[in-house]
Every structure is written in C-alpha cells, then in structure tokens.
Amino acid sequence: MSAITYKTIALVGNPNCGKTALFNLMTGARQKVANYAGVTVERKVGSLRLKNGQTLSVVDLPGAYSLSPATPDEEVTLQVIEGRRPGEAAPDVIVAVVDATNLRMNLRLVLELLRMGRPVVVAVNMADVARAQGLKLDLQRLELELGCPVVETIAVQQKGHLQLVELLEARFEAYLSIQRPSLGMPAPASPEALQRDVRRILAAVLSGNENRGRFQHRLDAVVMHPVWGLLVLATVLFLIFQAVFSWAAYPMDAIKDLMAATGEWTLTQMPEGPLRSLLVDGVIAGVGGVLVFLPQILILFFFILLLEDSGYLPRAAFLLDNVMGKVGLSGRAFIPLLSSFACAIPGIMATRTIANWKDRLATIMVAPLMTCSARLPVYALLIGAFVPERTVGWFDLRGLTLFGLYVAGVLSAMAVAWVFKRVWMKSSYQPLMLELPPYRVPSMRNLGLGLWERARIFMRRVGGIIFTLMVLLWFLSTYPAPPAGWTEAQGPAILYSAAGMMGQALQHVFSPLGFNWQISIALVPGMAAREVAVGALGTVYSLSAADNAMADALSPVIAQGWSLATAYSLLAWFVFAPQCLSTLAVVRRETNSWRYPLLMAAYLFALAYAAAFVTYRTTLWLGV
Amino acid sequence: MFLSELTHGQRAVVRGLVAASPDIHASILRRLADIGFIAGESLQLLRRGPGGREPLAVQIGETMFALRLVEARCIRVELQ
Questions:
Q1: How many CB atoms lie within 10 A of CB A185?
Q2: Which A residues, 330 through 369, put their C-beta within 8 Å of a C-beta on chain B?
Q3: Interchain pair B21, A430: CB under 8 A
Q4: Does the pTM exceed 0.80?
Q5: Cα gap A329→A327, rounded to integer Å
Q6: pLDDT at A217 exceeding the cut of 60
Q7: What SS3 state is found at A7?
Q8: CB count, 10 Å around CB of A249?
Q9: A519, A475 in Cβ contact below 8 A?
Q10: Closest Cα partner for A582 from A590, A573, A574?
Q11: Model pLDDT, residue A602
C-alpha cells in the first residue's frame, strides 16, 4: 500500500468484453497483480495519469455475467463494487465496459450497476468491430436512455481509450461531487425485467445490419467438428510441445554458456576459499541450473496466452467435454488443466471458473499430475543422461520418452479423477455453461504484457526461494567440515556434512527405489520446488567432486554413477511426487482448509513411491 | 419442447426455465437466465460435441454457449 491513496475507477464488465485489453491500454506496464486477501482471485491494479496531473488508480475487476454471483470471481466483483471488501474502499467511479457487438447481453449488467445508484460511465468497446459488421449505434440516445455518460473505446488500438480518458479528465471531479441518493441495495431485478428494458433500449439506439454474423460459423464448422476438430486440437498440442523443445534450445544454450563462463571467470578471479565455493557451487551451479528453463516456460505460456486470447480454448473444452465427463470432470476443467502444463499454480487458480464445488475440488486435486514446466529440468537432465539419441521411425527416442512422461501424467490424472468422483465425492451433475466467444486476432500488446508478468514471477522465484535454498543447501553440504587428517581416499568431504548425514539417513527410506544418498539429499530442498532438485544435484555433485566440476557437467557424472533402473525410478518419482510447496499453499488457500493439501500430498507421495518402486524393480528384473 | 430435443441448425424461442432433475437447484436456473436464457429470446442449436449427444453449442441472442444435456433439458422452447 502506498502512502498516497488515489481516487479509484473500477472496470466492470461481462467476460470476453475486452475489459482487460482496455485495462492494459489505460495502464500500460504500470500494473500490479496480486490476490485479494483470503481468496485466489486476482487483483489487478494500475495507474492512469490525467492531463491535470491527477493520478487515478484503475482496478480491473473479474468479469461477471450478473450481480448475482455464481463464482468466487463474481463474488469479489460484487463485494468491491459495494465496498464490502475489507481494506478496499468502494471505487469512486465505475466504468462499465460493454462489447458493442453484443449489447443484448452486456447491457443487462449495466442496468444492474445503474440500479445501485453509484457513478457509472459506460465504455462501448470494440466499436470498430460493430461498425465493420454494419451496426449503427446512436451513442447520444444510449446516453439519454441510460442516464449516464457513454463513450466509445477500441481496446485493440493504440489510442482507442482516449475518449474515455478525456471524459474522465473533464468530468471526474463532477462525478464525485454528485450526491447520489443512497438507495441502499435495491432488490435484485429479475433477468426478465432487465431484458425487457434492454430490448426497449436496443430498439431505440441500434440500427443497421439485422442478419450480421458475429460468429465465424465456417471456421467453427471445422474447429468444432467431431473429427476435424479433434485433429486440429491434436496438431495444436503437438506443435506446442515441439516448439517448447526445439525453439527453446538456442536461448537455453546461450544461458548455459553464460553461466559456465561466469563460473569460470569467478574461479579465476577469486582466491580459493569458502566464499568462492559458495558462489560457484552454490549460487551459479544451483540458480543457473534453474534459470536455464526460462525460455521453455515462456514459450509454453506464449502458446497458452495465444490460445486464450484467440478464443480457441473454450472450443477445445467443448470438444473434450465428453471425455472429461467420463471421468467425472467438467469440460471447463480442460482450461485449468492445460494451464497446469505450464504451472499448477495458475492452473489451480483458473479452477475458480468451475462453479460446482466438487468438480472444482476434483480438478484441483489432479492439477499437480499435469507435467508442469518445473519438471522439465529434471526430465531433461535424466533423459539427456540416460536415453540414447536414436531415431525410432520418424521420431526421436528422447522426444518420445518425454512425450511418454507427459502421457503418464495425463492418464494418471484421469484415473485419479475417476476414482475421486466415483468413490469419494459422488456427484452426478456437472454444469458446463461455457461461453464460446467469437474468434479474435490476439493482441501482441496483451501477449507481451502476459509474458512479461510470467517472466517476472519466475525470476522472483529464482531470486527468492531458489536462491535462498541453494545458499542454505551449500552451507548444509559444506559444514561441518570433515575431521582433521581426512583424505580424499576416505570418501568425499560432503559425507561428513549435515546434508551428507541427512542423505545417508534418508537413503534407508529411498534405497528400495534405487536412490543413492546424493539423490536423497537433493530431494530435500526439492520439496520446495521440483526444479530445485536439479540445482541441488549440481551443488551436491559439484561439492563431492575432487576438482570443481560445474553443474554443466552433471549429465555425464550421473550417466556414469547411476544405473538405468535408478534413472527410470527417479523419473517415475517425479511424475507423481508433490514436490512443490507453493502448489500445496495455493490449494490450502483455495480450499480454505488444510485437509485437502494434506490429502493431496499424501496420495501423491504414495503414488510416487509405488510408481518408483515398481519401475525400479521392473527395470532391474528386465535387466536392461 | 425442450432445447435438448432440437436438431442441428433449428431455431426456437425460449419460453421458460424448469428444473428438470433434482440436481438442478434454483441457483442453476438463475444462472441460465443470467447468461441469457430468458423467455422471449431466440436461440439456435448449432451443433453437438463429438459423439453427437453433448455438449450442445447454442447461440442465444448474440452469444454462444456450450451446455450439457442436463442444462438443456431445463430450457423450454418453442420452434420458430
């Protein structure tokens, strides 16, 4: 909270009305994304400077179909507008954003807002699209009918928000001074009554093309086709995975080289001692090992944002609804689960669009089984070290192995969801009610802002939790130092350290899975976040090596040191293990109880242990 | 008749909402109305999902929604 509190305007509108694009246009990169206290609903605030030097706070409220909330998102929107959220004053002015091409639906919410008796400005967005469709809108008449100011905006154009800003500049103070009669909360109007008013208003303000097509039905005939549609979906998903692995290679190599060079340079610049070891073995080997995966994460998010912005994702959910229904999930679960391939945290947060609590809980419970990008470092390391580079038909064996791991995650999620819904949380009805918006060309500006946001979150993790753990692990693996008179022949020095002892103790638990003490140590900080395990292995092996081997050389080291069975077993472990405290924390916040995160951790650990055990024994038995 | 009985491409007008099964609570009917299934509004059944049963892609007014059969059975319509 800053010391100065600005006057606030809040953007309110139906989902898919272009509200967030308008928000991005008004505030640019001057925005902060956080959560509303106690709920996982995103709180987006930015600032807007007016010509008179005044600064306004702009809040982008979650999209809502009406003021009778059906989801946690809508509940928050209503609370904020009414000034009922603790620590959050009611906005001074409400900007109701409406989609000019769909006033029939959007105006109902505007009428509801007006009934609350608060200052409202209506922004008729996508005015350009409406004109292109041959619609004629009489804005002055609309202003008269609604009894509040109306302006036109085009959120996808550089200057599309200026009319709104000018209106705010000219009349903002005037709005504040208007003493609206305090009505209290009016009784909610019935949708029928609201729609009667909407029809009357539309008859007065709207003219032009009666039979315009808002939807691209020809495109939908392919994209939503039972056969072609599924083919398109498979191709899209395949392309995404292909891109994540092939395009990312170059920037990843660049980051790796940079880290290696930094390590070498530090080695030559500093005298040998604990500080140099901390920097090279702890910070550079550990943090660098994780940083390498930034390009892959960004590419994955790029595609997810692209699909989201274009309007394709709900179509994919439409196609997969049947399959999802078979295991007891809603088609709506597709979007959160797809996001979980990038990271389970936004995925779990996206489940808030699922109104039914049991459906939502089932989706949350299986979200961590989707192969998130934090597993990539582990998979990439192990596959690189143990799976030979060989082609199988058209495919690369390494790519196939990775694909297999993704499939294993999806299949187990389906199985778990099925068991979950059949055995524990019986509910036969799962509503869908999913809007399929018209296709839109994604705006590069929004994509850029979205990616920037993701990169920032990842870098904060690398700089925060991962850095801290790496430094801590270095201390634990360096001290206590081996006793006087110790020689290299008695084993690596790290065995005497706290981490070494911990690893040897844990080995009793993990040896049935074929894990050695180095892996056992790495799994401990890896509890905080999966990718940390790779950095931790880097640090452990780097410290136990006689010369200062870099994390870069980790792959050949483990390729020599581990059996194939151990490697496969560790891969199986990572398919299931709930090694991400942030995910568990989000589940705690989302479900408002410790019960579900604990249950999640327990069932995932049990699955991980069983899967790793079976994999280890089977590989040994096969003798490969 | 109900929305669930329409064939692909058929147009109809909403006549009202009825809870068709015990799973349907008042809040779900309210939601259907909130998203636009209001008496007097015209709709068109565009297509159904793979398998030919559900979900149903319905254009209501100027909006397209995907519904499952359970919801579609609650929407009473009259052919246009």
A1: 10
A2: 331, 355
A3: no
A4: no
A5: 6
A6: yes
A7: strand
A8: 11
A9: no
A10: A590
A11: 93
